[in-house]
Design goal:
transmembrane helix, mainly alpha, transmembrane, about 130 residues, 2 domains, 4 helices
Amino acid sequence: MKSSIYVFNLCGVFFILVGIYYGWHTDYSELVGFPALLLVGVMAIMIGVYLWLTDRRVGVQPQDNDHAEISDADADYGFFSPWSWWPIVCAAGAAVAFYGIAMGWWIFPFGVVIGLVALVGLTYEHDRGDHAH
């Protein structure tokens, strides 16, 4: 985590300096690039500060230990069904809904219906059929 802190803070300082130079070079008349570069720098520093505060609270992470094993960073990610097709249907519903937003609002309800059916199927897939509990 310490390397991530350094990278984000270094990028933040770099973008702020480049933003100031860009503003000076354009006489602060171009009001898109100058604020955008400053905001990118501020956001990078915000992420670096968040990681620094988290690192102080959590302590030594396995990625900071030179003698750590891969299994030291293992975490419980939850239970996922490897045979389930519902996540693909859920993604298809989201794709249709976003396509409807971009191309025509009459398509959006079809995506919402597909997404709701997929969400219900994903939620209740272990309550019936071969894999019921």
